Amino acid sequence: MNFPILSSLILLPTIGALFLFFTKNKEKSNLTTKYVSLFTSIVNFLISIYLWFSFDQSISSFQFIEEREWINGFINYKIGVDGISILFIILTTFITPLCIISVNNTIKTRLRDFLIAILIMESFMIGVFCSLDLVVFYLFFEAGLIPMFLIIGIWGGPKRVYSAFKFFLYTLLGSVLMLVAIISIYWISGTTDVTKLYEIGIDPKYQNLLWLAFFSSFAVKTPMWPVHTWLPDAHVEAPTAGSVLLAAILLKMAGYGFIRFSLGLFPIASEIFTPLIYTLSVIAIVFTSLIALMQEDMKKLIAYSSVAHMGFVTLGIFTIQQQGIEGSIIQMISHGLVSAALFLCVGVVYDRMHSRLISSYGGVVTIIPKYSILFMLFTLAALGLPGTSGFIGEFLILMGVFKDNFLVAVIASLGVILGAAYMLWLYKRVVFGKLINTDLTKMVDLNKSEYFILICLAVPTLFFGFYPDPLINTIEVSVNDLINMYNANLTNK
Predict the structure, then answer these.
(1) Which whole-number Å values give the CA distances from 370 to 348, 449, 455, in the listed order?
(2) By CB distance 3.0 to 4.6 Å, which of 225, 266, 314, 486 could disulfide with 211?
(3) Distance (Å, rounded) from C-alpha 187 to C-alpha 164?
(4) What is the pLDDT of residues 263-278, one digit of tens each?
């Protein structure tokens, strides 16, 4: 196929953003702005679905490759997808239109600029998952900081400037070392092409330092303990759509980076540093779960739960077991759906009551029953109830970890129990109990757009919970190939 389908996926949201940029920024044109951005994002989603159906699941190599010479003799614009990256592209194109629909109720000022930021953000995020050149990956990876910085800093809460700068500085400082590592790889190997680097390998004597440099960036972005403190602050201040994008996709870029680069390029170093990853992941799972139990702000609680869930992801990736890595990818997809839904659920009650404090609520089940049912579904998915996508991911991860390290698996299993504790505790305090706050009686149940968004997220959460085969079939061959390549490099060291 000659049609540049991946470049189309990357460029289309930017074209939509440029079109919006040249429209008049008036309140009257807000409706047109919404429709244009929504149309752009839906078309992009349909292209990504076509990409999935056109994708050959039996081949482990990269498909739909596009290569252009960019900077002569140094950087090539090279993009392609395999079974691992294609799912993240679909997740991105699926979440973005839902974010655009959600702004109906949340964004009151400079709507056009907000939608431009979201569309440009989508372009950068898709670019990250397509990149097959380290420099191109780095550019997309870092460029995503700018629209998210603006989304938090302009449309966020009272402490938005502090949170935006904290988010920006943390992630930028981590990534500076990755840039140094990419330059070093070019100096050592003479190329930044990922597929060529997979073939030739990287000299073992350099791997440890390079692995640590990439780790510094991915650990902040994941975020791993102890560099996780920017995430709760960013989530609390970000508008609902910003929180959804941050939780659903931005955190997954680091998990994807660990799989694609840390395991793929530095297998010997990955083997050496696996105990470090295990330690930090287990601390993240247990420690942040205990912190989540103590939270009074709903957004902060869900943010800390994200850190714990991403702890499971990093744990699964470095088991180097088929179940562990597949579980991590499914967990990331599931967390993308469920955390997005939970932040939207918080946004629904916040828009009505202008409070995120758990103590402001209680007994809302009698007033907003539709909301309460859907909120319950996503709460149960977040704690990994069988029948939801959250269970599949966590179960496979724990299987992989049990194969590799029994003690780590036992401690990680404690995180599942703690996860159930803080999520059910949150639900009980918000939805059940006595209706003490009389202002709650004025609340109205889900409107059509809110109901539509939450149903769109509920369907795949339940579908993949009962039938995860489409996900497993897509990633199986690519994951198996990655593990074989990893083991081959270890034996040849």
Answers:
(1) 12, 13, 11
(2) 266
(3) 35
(4) 888 888 888 888 888 8
Question: Phi and psi at residue 423, in whole multiples of 5°?
Answer: -70, -45
Going from N- to C-terminal start, the domains of the chain cover 275-493
**Proportion of the chain in helix, strand, coil states, percent, rounded to 5:** 80, 5, 15
Six-digit token pair at 282?
């287990």
| Residue/partner pairs of 203-209 with CB below 8 Å, 24 or more apart | 204/268, 204/493, 207/266, 207/268, 207/269, 208/269, 208/272, 208/273, 209/181, 209/184
State pLDDT tens for residues 140-159: 888 888 888 888 888 877 78
> HSE (CB half, 13 Å, CA atoms) of 277?
29
The strand pairing partners of 67, in sequence order, are: 78
Residue 365: both structure tokens together: 């089940």
Helix/strand/coil (H, E, C) string of 292-361? HHCCCEHHHHHHHHHHHHHHHHHHHHCCCCHHHHHHHHHHHHHHHHHHHHHHHHHHHHHHHHCCCEHHHC
Q: pLDDT per residue over 9-64, tens digit each?
A: 888 888 888 888 877 666 555 777 888 888 888 999 999 999 888 888 888 788 88
Q: Provide the pLDDT for residue 2.
A: 65
